[in-house]
Amino acid sequence: MQNLSVTLIQTELYWENPIANLAMLEEKIAQIENETDIIVLPEMFSTGFSMNTSLAEPMNLTTFKWMRQQAAQSNAVVVGSVMIREAENVFNRMIWMQPDGQYHTYDKRHLFRMGNEHLHYRGGEKRLIVEWKGWKICPLICYDLRFPVWSRNVAQAYDVLIYVANWPEARAYPWKSLLVARAIENQSYVIGVNRVGKDGNDLTFSGDSAVLNFRGEYLFTETQKEIVQTVLLSKEDITNFRTLFPAHLDADSFIIT
Length: 257
Hints:
The strands form two sheets. Strands 6, 7, 8, 9, 10, 11 and 12 form a seven-stranded mixed beta sheet that branches. This protein has a six-stranded mixed beta sheet with strand order 5-4-3-2-1-13, covered by helices on one side. By secondary structure, it is α/β, with parallel strands linked by helices. β2 (about 40), α2 and β3 form a beta-alpha-beta unit. About 25% of the residues lie in helices and about 30% in strands. The protein has one domain: Carbon-nitrogen hydrolase (Nitrilase/N-carbamoyl-D-aminoacid amidohydrolase), CATH 3.60.110.
């Protein structure tokens, strides 16, 4: 059973400045000393959580090509969300970029209406589950964390749940509590990558990026500081736990329409 090495990048972001953010993140990715399988960046890592959709790029432009280059150079998946424009619509889109240039996308389903995200972006309609190195992984975005039905692990569809976020410090307790809940109820590893610092709306972010196991126990967490941290996930541990405690066999059956 192959273990999975995941690197979290918790960082400040330059407000609405893609050039500066890509340069900064490139330096942080270069700091990763050992081989890793997945590099996780925050939500809207090139701009911060902005409603200025004039900054949105089409697919296959600067940020997309940067992700492809970073994935190839690091020989790891690079995943995070960016503003993407398609015709008249703009999406808060997660891009899962593999080292061979193949990629998958997920458009944020739950748009944060308290920040007027629903007025500027179009919501996604389909969840993404990716297979990588023998693991099944479900990447989601920030506000999605509050909606357990959307992330429900029906029939053990995934092994790892990833949330990328710009989640303010004022709501740090829900962030930390819901990450634990998602891990326990889905019997899955959960990874949450948030930013730190202040954004252009004067909101403060404490990070609290974390890796939790299938029992909801912390394997790693960090508050306030910028970090580049790699954590190893054990396939044997999650397989054994699910075998000894098969709660998924008693789960309610439902279909999302």
